């Protein structure tokens, strides 16, 4: 038992890289991502968000890892509107346009 505790403590006390080393790897956007393909991904492993736009408006797409649509519809617009997405999923009762 003592050996397990010692191994556990040794693993927990491993050296953490200094802040300067970590800071040089921070993602930085010099200009706002204008379309969703260049958006800023935020996620926690269960739910994700993609943030893009100039702020006039700022757009956010929420995604869930276990919810998806299997019907095939190719969106050719690089910046689809809500109306375009609704037309792409006919018969889906969960989609509504918010104004």
Count of discrete domains: 2
User: How would you describe the shape?
Assistant: elongated
**If you average the pLDDT, what whole number results?**
75
**Helix amount, in percent?**
10-25%
Please provide the count of β strands.
3
Task: Give the biggest sheet.
Answer: 3 strands, antiparallel
- Determine Rg (CA atoms, Å): 21 Å
Main-sheet strand order equals 1-2-3
Key words describing this protein structure:
3 helices; 99 residues; 2 domains; alpha+beta; single chain; elongated; 3-stranded antiparallel sheet; 23% helix
Question: Summed up, what is this model?
Answer:
This protein has 99 residues and is α+β, with helices and mostly antiparallel strands.
What does this structure look like?
This protein has 99 residues and is of the alpha+beta class. It folds into 2 domains: 40 residues, no CATH class; 30 residues, no CATH class. Helix content is 23%, strand content 18%. The chain is built from 3 helices and 3 strands; from the N terminus they run ααβββα. Strands 1-2-3 form a 3-stranded antiparallel sheet, with no helix packed on it. Strand 2 and strand 3 form a beta hairpin. It is elongated and about 65 Å long.
